[in-house]
Amino acid sequence: MNPFKGLPEATLIEDPSDLEPCRRDESHLRGTLPLALVKPHGPAALRELVRRAKAEGFGLVPRGAGTGKAGGCLPTERTVVVDFSAWPGEARVSPQDLCLRAPVSVLLRDVKAAAEAHGLFYPPDPNSWESCSLGGTLATNAGGPNACKYGMTRHWVLAVEALLEDGELHTFGISSVKANAGPSLGQLLIGSEGIFGFILGATLRLTPLPRERTTLLLPVKRWEDLLDLPGRLCGAGFLPSAFEFFDPAVLAELRAHGPEEARRLPGEALAILEFDERGSTSDAFLEGLLDLLGPVAEGLRVASDVRQREGIWAVRRMTSAFLKERHPKKVSEDIVVPRSRLRDFFAGLDRLGFPAVTYGHLGDGNLHVNLLAAGETDPALLDRQLMDLFRLAIDLGGTLSGEHGIGLAKREAFLALSDPAQIQALRALKRALDPQNIFNPGKVL
Ligand code: MLT
Ligand code: ZN
């Protein structure tokens, strides 16, 4: 008998051609054809899905807007995709508690807009912020340019509502920044990519919206001159709310083949810096910054109006998609090193000697190293190149993923390169929380 028929409070999709799109996210991977896709509209659907998954031996794969970069939402063998886009509810702000409660189905852009309507700010801003779901950002602990100052998604989560293997919804955490009654199961779920249970909603911490913001373009003649700047700025008390960069190869591609705004971008390499503290638009602030930066700041330009700022950010935001269009089989990594080790990282990357171009979040050391020729590289060689890249980052005190997560794409490397005690402990937690391995099987661990 069909195990999905008669599911309460749910929309069921079984036609293979309608299932095709959920085999993709924004990684270079493709999942297997799932048994079905279910859009739950209420708790009865989840209760019943969990019961049937256990009884029939199939897995459940959570899906938000499908904008993930590591294959975390792709179906594996004998799985049902649980698409949360129809999960009910809306974002509600509590200005008194400086927090916002929202279901996973709400888009991140609507979460940010709901906060802004009250003069409040929810900082996480992954590149996909206009199209990704809140649920995806919670499951992957999403980052983005603002993480440089404000940290990752997990730093903004006060409470989590989650489906556990008993088929019920549970809440972990409260609407306050202070909650210290034992270890936090809610925080364990953030960034767990759905392997311990599925997040259905969250209470997010908010902060007053910054009232000032200055956006600077910093073109340089020798791109290595950028590499010490994040550390120098932070060491001198300047903490940018974003510090992004394009290396010479990425900048040249953008200039030659990108949109109109990109064609006018100056420099051999280019950084975009943003500051949002009080006083950051003053002349005194800019003078202090110029003093600190010295000759490297020769070409520094202030984005004079909103249009110019938006133009600069539009180019940065489309970089990933632009490179993908030009190099459809590229592999984009997201290693991170402490900002004080950026120069050592690039020296190491040179020594590794394989062709790679880089852009990304220089301010927090999270670099999108892109292997544009991945499609034409022998798969075994490509695997070795990626492992060498990850080892380089780890040896410098960094890690193999700064913001995209492990999913399917980095699972093998994660298992091979992590402290075995960490893997053992995570597997023990997985067995305890999901003894029948129904939640996102085959991912991360
Ligand atoms: C970005 O910062 O553009 C994204 O994280 C995507 C990427 O290029 O990997
Ligand atoms: Zn990024």
Stretches with pLDDT under 50, minimum 5 residues: none
Q: Count helical runs.
A: 15
For the record, the count of structural domains works out to 3
What would CATH call the class of the largest domain? Alpha Beta
Labels describing this entry:
Uridine Diphospho-n-acetylenolpyruvylglucosamine Reductase, domain 3; Uridine Diphospho-n-acetylenolpyruvylglucosamine Reductase, domain 2; binds D-malate; eight-stranded antiparallel beta sheet; five-stranded antiparallel beta sheet; 33% helix; binds zinc ion; Alpha-Beta Plaits; 445 residues; alpha+beta; 3 domains
Explain how this protein is built:
With 445 residues, this protein is of the alpha+beta class. It folds into 3 domains: 10-86, Uridine Diphospho-n-acetylenolpyruvylglucosamine Reductase, domain 2, CATH 3.30.43; 92-208, Uridine Diphospho-n-acetylenolpyruvylglucosamine Reductase, domain 3; 214-395, Alpha-Beta Plaits, CATH 3.30.70.2190. The chain has 15 helices and 19 strands. It has helices at residues 16-19, 43-56, 108-116, 134-140, 147-150, 185-189, 229-235, 248-257, 260-263, 283-293, 306-326, 342-352, 379-395, 411-417, 420-433; strands at residues 10-13, 36-40, 59-63, 79-83, 92-94, 99-103, 120-121, 157-163, 169-173, 198-205, 207-208, 214-220, 242-246, 269-275, 301-302, 331-332, 335-336, 357-361, 366-371. Strands 12, 13, 14, 15, 16, 17, 18 and 19 form an 8-stranded antiparallel beta sheet that branches. A 5-stranded antiparallel beta sheet has the order 5-6-10-8-9. Helix 12 packs antiparallel against helix 13. The longest helix has 21 residues, at 306-326. The chain is globular, with a radius of gyration of 22 Å. Zinc ion binds at residues 127, 360-361, 368, 403. GO terms for molecular function: FAD binding; oxidoreductase activity. Residues 30-209 form the FAD-binding PCMH-type domain. It holds the Pfam family FAD_binding_4. This is FAD-binding oxidoreductase. It comes from Candidatus Geothrix skivensis.
